[in-house]
Structure formats: C-alpha cells, structure tokens
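Lab notebook, bench 4. Continuing the backlog of folding jobs that were queued last week. Each job is logged with the same field layout so the records can be merged later without manual cleanup. Today's entry covers GTP cyclohydrolase 1 type 2 homolog, a 76-residue chain. Filled in by technician R.K.

JOB TYPE: sequence-to-structure
TARGET: GTP cyclohydrolase 1 type 2 homolog
LENGTH: 76
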Amino acid sequence: MAVTFMPTYHVVKKAIDIGANLLICHEGAFYSHHDSEIKSSAIFKEKEKLIKDSGIVICRYMIIFTVISLMALCKE
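JOB STATUS: finished
OUTPUT FIELD FOLLOWS
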C-alpha cells in the first residue's frame, strides 16, 4: 500500500515498482474537467494502460489525509 496526494504517472509507476497493489490518494487519477479532450490524449492512454496492466487499485479518499495528520499530532 502507498499513499500520495496526487497520483501522477510517476507516482503510480513508483508505487508499482515498490510492490504496492493499493494507492490511496487525495486527488483523482485523472483530471476530468473536459472528459472528451483528456480521454483522447496520449498521456491519458499511457497512464490508463499502466494502471490496467499493473492491476494496482487507486482509491481516492480525501479523509485519510486528515486521519494521518491527526495521528501524527497525537504522537507529539
């Protein structure tokens, strides 16, 4: 398992390289303001292929960052 703020291509690749099968992130895997434009881009297709071929699960879960922050504060 790995945790990140933003699952960029390089972050997803690094998570796969270290053996993570779950990537928890704050932001979504793809910026989707204009779906029709992004899905036709080479960058989108390359990232989508990386995710599908690896089988990694990407979970957007914003509250996890709040929990991690609170846990860190409790340790101090």
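OBSERVATION: The longest strand covers residues 22-25.
SIGNED: R.K.
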